[in-house]
Design a protein that fits this description.
Elements: H1 11-25, H2 45-52, E1 54-59, E2 62-63, E3 67-69, E4 75-76, H3 78-90, E5 93-98, H4 104-109, E6 115-116, H5 124-127, E7 131-139, E8 141-146, E9 165-169, H6 174-181, E10 186-190, H7 193-201, E11 207-211, H8 212-218, E12 225-229, E13 237-243, H9 250-265, H10 269-276
Parallel strand pairs: 1-5, 1-6, 9-10, 9-11
Antiparallel strand pairs: 2-3, 3-4, 7-13, 8-11, 8-12
Amino acid sequence: MNSLDAAPVTRRNLLLASTSALAVAFPATASAQTTPPAPSPAGSRLDAVLKSQKLRVGTNLLSKPYTFKNAAGEADGWDTDVAKALAMDMGVKPEFIDTPWDGIIPALLANKFDVIIAAMANTVKRSLTINFTIPYHFVLSAFIYRSADAEKLSSLAKFNDPSLTVGSELGGAHRLTLNRFFPRMKVTEFNTIADVLLAIEGRKVNVAIAEYTVLTEHIANKQGFAVKAVDYPGSMFPIAMGLLPGPDNDHLKTFLNIWTQHFYWSGQFEPIRKKWFPNAPLPKLEKFVAPL
């Protein structure tokens, strides 16, 4: 009988086997604490997470349906459910740590959490500071504008106009979309997505740019606004999990990459995707899983 037939091969069994082997090679020295310390050279962050039975997830609860605070005051959204599925497969509990967007990378560097799962694009600039996994999702930029301007902005080409001022989140990846496809627009940056939306509603800017689903969710119960997706070829950008660089995090990064592939390959992503993006087509698996 083939050895693979001896016992069912699951993500949970593979993780436990991997962890047991690692524990023999690298005896753990840190005990479980409320806030796990940074891993020592004798172990790894994955060891610390498994020992503490807790995965600390950095998030920013201001971008429905990706990450937001629900009516019960709890973390919710696509990224939150992805993190919950990840923690379940690791056999640990997730702890969501809401952090201002402009402080989320500094908080990771200060060991406030183990991983960022918050619809963060893996930009070149960010990669100079932190490490990223392979992408677990792709997002699309879009413009929100007043319905009264619909004729003036009837095509994407008309947005590339120096007379238009566009609101954008400070340090956000949508600025890359503007730089590439709409370089003639005047850009005004705001600290948060909420500030961007207030700017367009308060007529401080002509249009604003953010993630397509965030904007369609925002205007669902509003009148007087419209959304236009930036659907140029190559305009989608990846989002990935962010973690600290260095050898202490190598095993965690490897695990997260493999988990992401199995998340899609096994179909585990489908009910979560349909829950938060019911009208969007399912993504092609080859974006996340290398062909065999």
